[in-house]
Write a structure and sequence with these properties.
By secondary structure, the chain is mainly α. It contains six helices and two strands.
């Protein structure tokens, strides 16, 4: 699967998680009083906020496939991005009261729900992307320290989308047809 498609998949998944978290926030907060009108009140202001959030995530590197794995570095970047996003959202609702809502509790509930759903979504994405059907098969020709390092990098970063089928020494290849047999 090409890198561009992987990044678009991440972006679309994040987009879905953002709006699902908003829906769950309003449902949890208002229960039986949750109406379409309440959804409409929150939809446009949060859409603006979410667009800003996605831009911050992009700037932070959360759509870089080398970072998109669920490890400490990823969660550090995510937590910094979320902190910036919350600060911007608070400033947005404080300085632009145009929308008629002041979602203090909703904003923090939304952030919490989003963080949980986002982590789950990214875990699912990384699990699915490791599927052998989505990996590009690679044959490496050469044997030296750099090849060993490359092998480790590829094995430790399945989200990059490569699987090493074989590493061969240049001496093993007599004709181009030898490559077809490997």
């Amino acid at each position: 699967m090409p890198k561009r498609i992987k990044r678009i998949t991440l972006l679309l998944g994040d987009f879905i998680v953002l709006y699902l978290s908003l829906w769950l926030t309003l449902f949890i907060r208002h229960g039986a009083d949750f109406t379409f009108t309440r959804w409409q009140q929150h939809f446009w202001p949060f859409s603006i906020i979410y667009l800003i959030w996605l831009i911050i995530f992009f700037i932070a590197g959360l759509y870089e496939l080398s970072i998109a794995r669920n490890n400490i570095a990823f969660y550090n970047i995510l937590s910094r991005g979320l902190a910036i996003n919350v600060g911007l959202a608070i400033a947005f609702f404080y300085f632009i009261p145009y929308f008629g809502i002041t979602p203090k509790t909703n904003l923090f509930l939304n952030l919490t729900i989003f963080a949980v759903l986002f982590s789950g979504w990214r875990n699912l994405y990384n699990y699915l992307i490791k599927s052998s059907t989505l990996l590009n098969n690679v044959l490496i020709i050469g044997q030296n320290k750099e090849i060993d390092q490359l092998n480790k990098i590829i094995k430790n970063n399945p989200q990059l989308g490569y699987r090493i089928l074989k590493i061969v020494s240049p001496q093993e290849i007599k004709t181009p047809f030898d490559l077809l047999e490997m």
